[in-house]
Write a structure and sequence with these properties.
One of its GO terms (molecular function) is ATP binding. This is Nitrogen regulation protein NR(I). Keywords: ATP-binding, DNA-binding, Nucleotide-binding, Phosphoprotein, Transcription, Transcription regulation. The structure is a single chain. With 455 residues, the chain is α/β, with parallel strands linked by helices. The protein folds into 3 domains: 129 residues, Response regulator (Rossmann fold), CATH 3.40.50.2300; 163 residues, 3-Layer(aba) Sandwich (Rossmann fold); 142 residues, Orthogonal Bundle (Helicase, Ruva Protein, domain 3). Strand 3, helix 3 and strand 4 form a beta-alpha-beta unit.
Length: 455
């Protein structure tokens, strides 16, 4: 029987049970190992590049299987974690799935079924690399829709076909573009992004095509444009829907002919670039309105992908949370690995108008505000926790979620208002104008409340 090539870690403080699972899995997996403590499990995850973790919930130590789950997902987002819990512990199983577990099983576990599950995760590959190793760093999703996009990208990335990515601001379009580049044959050459909406037409032309010395006032030397800098690599045209029509015509000629003439130059330069473009507009509609060239639209739309907003894929938030939590902790020098169930519930119910970009900033703020090693409801910025989340309830009905009620039951309206204002001021670092906007009150009213509540 051919063996799979991935690495499987069994985490269980019952040595006999762990060894039994290892022995069973080694019949099909060439590298299955056991860890009998949380510390040794985390060391193996850091050291060995584990592909699948099978962890018992009850480790009878200062931690549990959910902690190992979160640690493994933070270390490598593509790691598949299978949690095993007692038959009556459905709460742990449900929480594990919300946190990004591949599966949650209850005891007794059928070993043959477990082997089959692992074989599906780690199919045999002649090159010794699991299919799941072909990942898109920083691009994390469990949603069915996004998994469909990833399947397309696995086919598209190794080719030279142009890709158009559409979606709202903050959904991670540039991350996806970088992932396409990193999984292509051009990965050893440059990935060059340019925001077509953030520059004047003349500056955009100079940035794209470069310029010769003396081409205009201030051009004291020859300068290569981004098209030339991206030669043999990937050019990422962000917000291409905002590019002026006259620039669209010039860009089309370069993409068709592969020839760039810098501004003010007489000598042409041959370039070979792959184009990935992104927009938060409906380009097809812009074409109908004569605001975007149809020929350029067809040229950049080799393959078209639409990224859904975060509010339509709340199931992705736990894994995204783990990824951004690890980034924030490394940046800020904190050691935080967990979030309470009530806090995660609030994050998953929020509508995220700023999408993934906003989620990343919120998690960073939570890490800054956290006093311990576990993130809780009180660490969530007030505009997410106490203002915007009310929009998720049924109109005309009060918000009766347990965390909301527990926090304010028995307190006066003045106490609730004072606490809300205090948290908002903390969130804005004392910026009263910003706090007033979040609270939807005038600055004078806020100033009066601050004096009234001695804040």
């Amino acid at each position: 029987m051919n063996k799979t090539k991935g690495k499987v870690l069994i985490v269980d403080d019952d040595k006999d049970h762990a060894d039994l699972l290892v022995e069973s899995l080694q019949k099909q997996c060439s590298n299955a190992i056991a860890a009998y403590t949380a510390a040794s499990a985390k060391s193996a995850i850091d050291r060995d590049g584990i592909d699948v973790v099978i962890v018992d919930y009850d480790l009878r130590s200062d931690t549990d299987g959910l902690d190992i789950l979160q640690y493994a997902k933070q270390a490598k987002s593509s790691t598949k974690v299978i949690l095993i819990a007692d038959q009556n512990n459905t709460v742990a199983c449900e929480q594990a799935i919300r946190m990004g577990a591949y599966e949650a099983l209850t005891k007794p576990v059928d070993v043959d079924s477990l082997r089959l599950m692992v074989s599906k995760i780690l199919p045999t590959r002649g090159d010794g690399k699991a299919v799941e190793d072909f990942e898109f760093p920083g691009v994390i999703s469990r949603s069915h829709y996004m998994q469909g996009i990833y399947k397309v990208l696995r086919r598209v990335a190794p080719t030279n076909i142009s890709v158009l990515i559409e979606g709202e601001s903050g959904t991670g379009k540039e991350l996806l573009a970088r992932a396409i580049h990193e999984n292509s044959d051009r990965r050893d050459n440059a990935f060059k992004p340019i925001n077509c909406a953030g520059l004047t037409e003349s500056l955009l032309e100079s940035e794209l095509f470069g310029h010769a010395k003396g081409a205009f006032t201030g051009a004291t030397a020859d300068r290569k444009g981004i098209l030339e800098q991206a030669d043999k690599g990937t050019l990422f045209l962000d917000e291409i829907g905002d590019m002026p029509l006259s620039m669209q015509a010039k860009l089309l000629r370069v993409l068709e002919d592969g020839i760039v003439v810098p501004v003010g130059a007489t000598k042409a330069v041959v370039v070979d670039v792959r184009v990935v473009a992104a927009t938060n507009h409906d380009l097809a509609k812009l074409v109908e309105e004569k605001k975007f060239r149809q020929d350029l639209y067809f040229r950049i739309k080799g393959v078209s992908l639409t990224i859904p907003p975060l509010r339509k894929r709340a199931e992705d938030i736990p894994e995204l949370f783990g990824f951004f939590l690890r980034q924030a902790c490394e940046e800020l020098g904190r050691d935080i690995h967990r979030i309470t169930e009530s806090a995660m519930s609030i994050l998953q119910s929020y509508h995220w108008p700023g999408n993934i970009r906003q989620l990343r900033h919120v998690i960073r703020t939570m890490v800054v505000m956290c006093d311990g090693d576990t993130l809780d409801v009180g660490d969530i910025p007030p505009d997410v926790h106490l203002v915007k989340r009310l929009s998720g309830r049924v109109e005309g009905q009060p918000d009766m979620s347990q965390d909301f009620v527990a926090q304010f039951t028995g307190r006066s309206l003045e106490e609730v208002e004072r606490e809300h204002i205090r948290r908002t001021l903390d969130y804005t670092n004392g910026n009263r104008a910003e706090a007033a906007k979040i609270l939807k009150i005038g600055e004078r009213t806020l100033y009066r409340k601050i004096k009234e509540y001695d804040l």
